[in-house]
Amino acid sequence: MTTNQSADLAKATFGTGCFWCTEALYESLDGVIDAVSGYEGGQKPNPTYKEVCTGTTGHAECVEVTYDPSKITYQELLEAFFRSHDPTTLNRQGADVGTQYRSVIFYHNDEQKQLAETAKAELNKAGAYANPIVTEISPATTFYEAEAYHQSYFAKNPEQGYCAFVIAPKLDKFKKVFKEKLKPAEKATASH
């Protein structure tokens, strides 16, 4: 568990494939103070992006979200998690393949664990997806912040190919679904 969790703010950690996209989605939500791209769940201390990309370190690309529970709940963050990617594909999101792209929730306390397990079970029971959810639910371990050039990648590189053709359409769709939960500045751009 991270030590910079305060009484007013909480942490949540999610992996939905490429962290550039995950970070952009969570950054748009009102109540999210920060979303940091990084690596968690592996064996090697201080892994680099190049090492994680080999799939041999055991880490997942993920985002550590700092949020204000008085503005957005963990359940709402879980809803964003399950609706922003395909949680039924094992070690894959779109063209990204490997354990580093797995669907994963790293819980920071027992309440988060219970809420994540309940959400996964209810979605499976309801048949929300054509296939069973394979999302891993594991205790938070050491989170390693990704290299500086990965932080706010979409915001800094909107014209880059992956950003323009993969992240931008996904973010537009996400903003339509979560329009009531967007930061005020994001609501203005979502309505255009």
TrEMBL record:
Recorded hits in Gene3D superfamilies, A to Z, give:
Peptide methionine sulphoxide reductase MsrA
Which function does this protein serve? Has an important function as a repair enzyme for proteins that have been inactivated by oxidation. Catalyzes the reversible oxidation-reduction of methionine sulfoxide in proteins to methionine.
The record's listing under InterPro entries reads:
Met_Sox_Rdtase_MsrA_dom, Met_Sox_Rdtase_MsrA_sf
Q: Answer yes or no on keyword Oxidoreductase.
A: yes
Q: Where in this chain does the record put each Peptide methionine sulphoxide reductase MsrA domain?
A: 11-163
The record lists the lineage as: Bacteria, Pseudomonadati, Bacteroidota, Cytophagia, Cytophagales
Catalytic activity as recorded in UniProt: L-methionyl-[protein] + [thioredoxin]-disulfide + H2O = L-methionyl-(S)-S-oxide-[protein] + [thioredoxin]-dithiol; [thioredoxin]-disulfide + L-methionine + H2O = L-methionine (S)-S-oxide + [thioredoxin]-dithiol
The name of this protein is: Peptide methionine sulfoxide reductase MsrA
- PANTHER family named in the record: PEPTIDE METHIONINE SULFOXIDE REDUCTASE (PTHR43774), PEPTIDE METHIONINE SULFOXIDE REDUCTASE MSRA 2 (PTHR43774:SF1)
Q: What is its EC number?
A: 1.8.4.11
- The annotated active site, in chain numbering, is 18
The protein's GO terms of the molecular function aspect are:
peptide-methionine (S)-S-oxide reductase activity
Whether Transcription counts among this entry's keywords is no
Q: Which Pfam families match?
A: PMSR (PF01625)
Family named by the database record? Belongs to the MsrA Met sulfoxide reductase family.
Q: State the source organism's domain of life.
A: Bacteria
Record keywords, A-Z: Oxidoreductase
